[in-house]
Structures are given as C-alpha cells and as structure tokens.
Amino acid sequence: MIGRLRGILVSKQPPWLLVEVGGVGYELEAPMSTIYDLPATGKEVTLLTHYAVKEDSVALYGFLHDSERALFRNLQKVSGIGAKIALSVLSGVSASDFARLVQAGDVVALTKIPGIGKKTAERMVVELRDRVDGLAMSLPGASAKANGAPLDPAGEATVALQQLGYKPAEVTRLVQKVAAEGDSAESIIRKALRAALGN
To answer: For residue 183, what is the domain's CATH number?
Structure first.
C-alpha cells in the first residue's frame, strides 16, 4: 500500500502527474483541485495517495489535502461511482461546496457535474449526508497557479476537460468562452469548470 509520495514533480498534464522518487517515476491521476495548487515542475512535492488494485489494472491517485482523499474514498462507497466520477467531482467543485450541496440535498446542482445523473445525485445525498459534515470547512478553496507558459494552454485545457467527462463540443464552447491571452492551462480549466457549473 502506497500512502504518500515525496519527490520531484517531473510533469503535469491534467489529470496525469509524474513524480520522481529515488530514481523511480510514479504516474498518478489527480483532481484539478490538487493540480491547481501544485508547485512548478522541477520542484519538490508531497502527495497523499490512494492505491487502487482491480482485476485488470493498478492505479495510483494523488492529493495535496487529506480532505480531498477522504472525499475521493467516500464517493466510491456510493453505488455506481468509481474513481473516474470521483475525480470529476473533485475537479468540478470544492470539497466544502460539495459538502454543502449534499447537506442541502441540491440534486439539481449535483447533476451539473460530469457523470452525475439524477439517480446518482440522489444516492449521494442519501449515502453521504452524514459523512461530509467535516468537509464543509476543512479544505481551502482551490487557487490556480501557473507553471510557466505551456506551448498551447487552450489545447491542454481542452484535453483535460474531455478526460473529465465533458463532451468535445461543450469543451470547445467553454474554452473559447473563458480563455484569455496569457492564461495558463490550469487557469482556463478552472474558469471553464466554473462556467459549466454556472458559478
């Protein structure tokens, strides 16, 4: 079981990260809430991890905050929710906002998150209401941090948003709507997610 990694951040191509620890490169998937707050590539980073083993695959997920990892794990206890949807939830809304939506029973708002239908949102409200109490104030809001000027920030953002479950046509519309000159990929993704959720 791998519970934490500390090493050099080699690359970040949302949702994928590569962290080198003692000469070994670990590939992880991470939600945008973590990617926003990562240091620049080449810097040291410490990530809490979730190690998942299935019949046909092994996966490693990385988080900066314990609250993110706790929510990621709790989400997968809900029937019909796997790692992909759990990452999408964390990428689309902060843990504190998610906790408020669940506590308020706001099914309509929850269905705006990619991969979440009405029945899944209803199950979330029923099954997670008692588990999210501690999350409402435990995770600081995500803030975008630029990591230098990528070759094509809009292109990186487009790929990342599609991997989060948004349809290509919707991604194109969102990116064109929010992208501004000089924006990093992380900044475009953050603004596009807010626009998609009506924030």
So the answer is: 1.10.8.10
